[in-house]
Amino acid sequence: MFVRFWGTRGSIPKPGPSTLRYGGNTSCVEVRPADGSHIIIDAGTGIRKLGKEMMQGAFGEGRGAAHLLVSHTHWDHIQGLPFFAPVYQKGNKFFVYARQRDDTHLRAVFASQTDSPYFPVPFENVQADVSFRELVDSARFDIGDVKVSCTRLNHPWIAIAYRLDCDGASVAYVTDTAPFRDILIEQEFIRQPPKPGDPLKPEDAAKLREMREGVVRLCEGADLVIYDTQFTPEEYLSKPHWGHSCPEDAIEIARAAGAKGVVLFHHAPERTDDQIDALLDYHRKETKDLELVAAAEGMELTLGSQR
Ligand SMILES: [Zn+2]
Ligand SMILES: [Zn+2]
């Protein structure tokens, strides 16, 4: 399968001279397995350019079908969707997957993004056939020859991670998440976070342990683990409740899972290209047992057998 990065940034787009190499668009990763399925993970602003490319082929003629796996519906993971040209072309088919909410159906979550006064074109103007599939935390399903599995993450209002197995290869997409040790984040924004290292309530510790086991299992033996590494350890100390990790956490999970490679992903808006180079250099010296790369817009990786 081919894996292509269209958006690598977290929180908000960060165009400009300091992000030219790793990219300024928010989260969007395309996966193309050998069976011809078209899978997109997250619809941050990076999806706009992918949409333009898709319109050059079957999607421009209304004959395309694609599956969009959404980690969670925070802006940086869905904001490109209203600018994704293939959804305005009649005949195209989209299947959108995201975690089920208690209060709002997925369709309403996506439709409200373009409600007046926030956007000029209401969701009813979408011409493609878009169906929504709500997922539970541990969902497993197939897309063509691809086996997809999910597990929940430690993030405000909860995100889910995906693993895709196909063509004798596997890729895990694990964003957004805090580490599984200092704070349990559920359906709330915690105003007063505990200090990292403070003792946890036993029931919270048990939930975090279970969550970590789920993530390690999801990444087990994976060729590639794309992981939220928004923070440096210093930044994490003051913002453990924001729900993001450090490269150290990604490496620790990948080692526990026996994964082969880690992609640093969801770069902080303020992180410059040179700082990402430095982070990568530092961690490569300490991490000889894993292939380590930083996600860059336009980066393409081939795993297992090819198309
Ligand atoms: Zn995010
Ligand atoms: Zn988020």
Q: In short, what is this structure?
A:
The protein has seven helices and 14 strands. With 307 residues, it is α/β, with parallel strands linked by helices. Strands 6-5-4-3-2-1-14 form a seven-stranded mixed β-sheet. Strands 7-8-9-10-11-12-13 form a seven-stranded mixed β-sheet.
Structure, explained:
The chain is of the alpha/beta class. 22% of the residues lie in helices and 24% in strands. The protein has 7 helices and 14 strands. The chain has helices at residues 47-54, 75-78, 106-112, 202-219, 233-238, 247-257, 273-286; strands at 2-7, 28-32, 39-41, 65-69, 93-99, 129-135, 140-143, 146-152, 160-166, 169-174, 224-228, 261-265, 291-294, 300-302. The chain has a 7-stranded mixed sheet with strand order 6-5-4-3-2-1-14. A 7-stranded mixed sheet has the order 7-8-9-10-11-12-13. Helix 7 (273-286) links the parallel strand 12 and strand 13 (291-294). Helix 4 (202-219) crosses helix 6. The longest helix has 18 residues, at 202-219. The chain is globular. The protein starts with a strand and ends in a 5-residue tail after the last strand. One zinc ion binds at residues 72, 74, 155, 159, 176.
